[in-house]
């Protein structure tokens, strides 16, 4: 079987978890290979996501590593054997890889949390808002490149709009609501979309107002995607050098705690809807 040229973030996560299981068991790559009757190179390729792994081999690896977490093992098997052709794959070689990786991560997520301080979270954006944002940030792009990014962002909304949506929670700072990335009409439409979505049982939107005392958490923007088990959760953050996918267990615990802390200081959902309504009337 040919080796992969560019593994996806999901494939890399599977590989990382298998390597973590081996390291936790104190088993060397050579020992793991010997127990499976394969070469050390094959174990290395699996742990670098350059090669896939069958259910039978994955379960044998978990047994050799003395892993008894059946929920985790079953989740890893699903990751290894899933052959879903996602809509995002149609954008291969048309958009940067992180766009595809985020869409795939969301598709398989069990829940989604967003925290944003400067912009409306992507899943809540209207087409006009997204277009204004992409046009400004990528002012050198030809129109068709902007259109492609807007189209991709709109398709990502399916996870909270489909018949079996995932639970979604967003914490938005007042600054993100007040920054007018487009004109007043587009801003009103954006507020109306947030309010309409927030009425759904699976969507919770909270606002952090400017007048909150003692708030110094403006650097805490994040996308938190829940996995089938907590160990497979992922945090996505945009930095100066690109998009970063965070999956170390200690970091995940930190970000879970941070999200709940931000949630606790924000307005409750009903007051948040009233707050957004007030801002809309000011336009």
From TrEMBL:
<dbReference type="Pfam" id="PF19054">
    <property type="entry name" value="DUF5753"/>
</dbReference>
<protein>
    <recommendedName>
        <fullName>HTH cro/C1-type domain-containing protein</fullName>
    </recommendedName>
</protein>
<dbReference type="InterPro" id="IPR001387">
    <property type="entry name" value="Cro/C1-type_HTH"/>
</dbReference>
<dbReference type="Pfam" id="PF13560">
    <property type="entry name" value="HTH_31"/>
</dbReference>
<feature type="domain" description="HTH cro/C1-type">
    <location>
        <begin position="18"/>
        <end position="72"/>
    </location>
</feature>
<dbReference type="GO" id="GO:0003677">
    <property type="term" value="F:DNA binding"/>
</dbReference>
<dbReference type="InterPro" id="IPR043917">
    <property type="entry name" value="DUF5753"/>
</dbReference>
<dbReference type="InterPro" id="IPR010982">
    <property type="entry name" value="Lambda_DNA-bd_dom_sf"/>
</dbReference>
């Amino acid at each position: 079987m040919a080796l992969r040229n560019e593994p996806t973030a999901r494939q890399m996560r599977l590989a990382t978890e298998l390597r973590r299981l081996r390291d936790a068991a104190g088993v060397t790559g050579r020992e793991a290979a010997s127990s499976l009757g394969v070469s050390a190179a094959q174990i290395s390729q699996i742990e670098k996501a350059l090669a896939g792994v069958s259910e039978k081999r994955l379960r044998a690896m978990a047994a050799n590593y003395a892993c008894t977490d059946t929920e985790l093992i079953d989740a890893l098997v699903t990751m290894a054997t899933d052959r879903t052709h996602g809509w995002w794959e149609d954008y291969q070689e048309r958009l940067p890889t992180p766009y595809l990786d985020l869409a795939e991560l969301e598709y398989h997520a069990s829940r989604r949390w967003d925290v944003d301080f400067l912009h409306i979270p992507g899943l809540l954006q209207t087409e006009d808002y997204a277009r204004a944002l992409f046009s400004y940030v990528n002012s050198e792009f030809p129109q068709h490149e902007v259109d492609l990014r807007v189209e991709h962002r709109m398709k990502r909304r399916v996870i909270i709009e489909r018949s079996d949506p995932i639970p979604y929670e967003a914490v938005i700072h007042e600054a993100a609501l007040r920054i007018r990335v487009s004109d007043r009409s587009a801003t009103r439409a954006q507020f109306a979309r947030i309010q309409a979505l927030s009425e759904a049982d699976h969507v919770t939107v909270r606002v952090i107002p400017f007048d909150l005392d003692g708030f110094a958490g403006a650097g805490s923007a994040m996308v938190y995607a829940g996995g089938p088990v907590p160990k497979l959760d992922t945090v996505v953050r945009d930095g100066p050098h690109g998009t970063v996918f965070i999956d170390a267990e200690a970091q995940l615990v930190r970000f879970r705690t941070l999200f709940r802390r931000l949630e606790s200081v924000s307005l409750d959902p009903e007051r948040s809807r009233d707050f957004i309504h007030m801002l809309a009337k000011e336009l």
